[in-house]
Amino acid sequence: MIPFSPPHIDQAIIDEVVDTLKSGWITTGPKTKRFEKELSAYCGNPVTLCLNSATAGLEIMLRWFGVKEGDEVILPAYTYSATANVIVHCGAKPVFLDIGEDFNISAQAVQKAITAKTKVIMPVDFAGLPCDYDELHSIVTKPEIKSLFAAATPEQQKLGRILILSDAAHSFGAMYNGKKAGTFTDVSVFSFHAVKNLTTAEGGAIAFNLPAPFNNQEIYTQLCITTLHGQNKDALAKTQPGNWKYDIVEAGYKMNMTDIMASIGLVELSRYDSGILSKRKHIFDTYTNAFKQFGWAIIPQYQHEQKTSSFHVYPLRIQNITEQQRDTIITHIFAKQVSVNVHFLPLPMTSFYKQLGYNISQYPNTYAHFANEISLPVYVDLTESQLKTVIEAVVSSINEVLKS
Ligand SMILES: *Cc1c(COP(=O)(O)O)cnc(C)c1O
Questions:
Q1: What is the pLDDT of residues 168-177, one digit of tens each?
Q2: Which atom of ligand 1 is nearest to the CA of 204?
Q3: Which of 110, 246, 291, 321 is the most buried (most CB within 10 A)?
Q4: What is the pLDDT of residue 269?
Q5: Model's pTM, two decimal places?
Q6: Residues 63-83: pLDDT tens digits?
């Protein structure tokens, strides 16, 4: 069976993890701090905070901005549950938007959805393709949109407008206007979950890029405390001679990254462009060249005007098929020993969000993209002959179902 997205674990990663295990320090410490600095150097943003997941990063940023009951947060209906769940955790209302042809939310749709209750927009760079950040920024800074914004916390007053919190779980390494993800907007949150482009098994990072008068370094220091029990010294600082005494300054959370996780990330990052992105791009281009000759194929956008994807998910779509036919095609592909996937089950189709009153009929383009979508395997260890097997399995399965 050709798997969908196994991690690439080689001797370099094993050596770095063993080095940490033998170092006498396995939780948050020097390797996590080094990984944070190297992430900022790679992305070009002022400062980065590593955490145990992207979900934790998204939630802590909503809480930092003071998002609470009565507030609205705008996001796509077509995303993973984490993007919406954190809004619910804060007591606020998720305002789902239908997506455009590129699977992302459009600036026009965002503008229409903004109300006096809107505090945050959470664009998702689906499959690794950046959203239209220039357009999103020009909307949140428009005088009539800014005057609608009802600041209720010191942070909201300081920003004076809607916060753009990018769910960049897919887009680490993506480019927009010649710059890297992490710099496109106020705050971006990456995921280093096992299936993501760059992994630490579990993990995530907040890339801060807030405009003046915010001091990103100060916010980083403050959130180090918030994400570790509200304790004013981390475990490593407490080990310094005589430095045991600590204080709890708030009811903080437990969201820190360990040095074991960071050691995987350090190796992944050191070869990210040459060893990971280039291979993923090659797989995307090979799929596109193989499928574009077929009338049934809708090829995903991944290099579009001023944007380059991080090549995270290859979402192939098939013209004029139903959701049931798509599911049958997937069964045929699995029967040929090839694993594929669907990104995502739209949130208004899940039990929890349905019960909150959301209905997929209000998101027709989201449903249309979901119903005929199949995500294909993309990973570093996928060989040329496996790639050929995947393409043959996909083409023959589609032909079998379309002819039946
Ligand atoms: C994976 C993913 C997340 C969650 O990332 P974790 O690191 O697992 O918390 C959030 N949003 C999207 C779009 C994702 O694909």
A1: 999 999 999 9
A2: 7
A3: 110
A4: 98
A5: 0.98
A6: 999 999 999 999 999 999 999
* Residue 147 tokens, joined: 């005057």
Q: What is d(CA 160, CA 292) in angstroms, rounded to the nearest whole number?
A: 47
303 contacts 277 by C-beta, under 8 angstroms: no
Q: Is the CB of 54 under 6 A from ligand 1?
A: yes
Nearest residue to 59 (alpha-carbon basis) of 118, 10, 120, 3? 120
Encode pLDDT of 148-158 as tens digits: 999 999 999 99
What does the alpha-carbon distance between residue 339 and residue 5 come to, in Å, rounded to a whole number?
Answer: 9
Probe residue for ligand 1, chosen from 50, 52, 55 as the CB with the greatest number of ligand atoms within 8 Å? 55
Strand order across the 187-191 sheet: 47-51, 204-208, 187-191, 163-167, 118-121, 72-76, 93-97
226 lines ligand 1 (CB under 6 A): no
Tokens (6 digits) for 307: 């944007």
pLDDT (tens digit per residue) in 346-364:
999 999 999 999 999 999 9
Q: Is the CB of 122 under 6 A from ligand 1?
A: no
SS3 content of the chain, % helix, strand, coil (to 5): 45, 15, 40
| Per-residue model confidence as pLDDT tens digits over 51-66 | 999 999 999 999 999 9
Looking at the predicted structure, is the pLDDT value of residue 4 above 90? Answer: yes
Distance CA 201, CA 172 (A): 16
Ligand 1 pocket residue status of 84, Cβ below 6 Å: no
Ligand 1 centroid to Cα of residue 268, in Å, is: 18
> What's the one-letter identity of residue 308?
T
Å from CA of 169 to ligand 1 middle: 5
- Confirm or reject: Cβ of 59 under 6 Å from ligand 1: no
Which atom of ligand 1 is found nearest the CA of 196? Answer: 1
Residue 305 clears pLDDT 90, i.e. is over it:
no
Task: Compute the distance from residue 193 Cα to the ligand 1 centre, in Å.
Answer: 7
- Amino acid found at 216: N
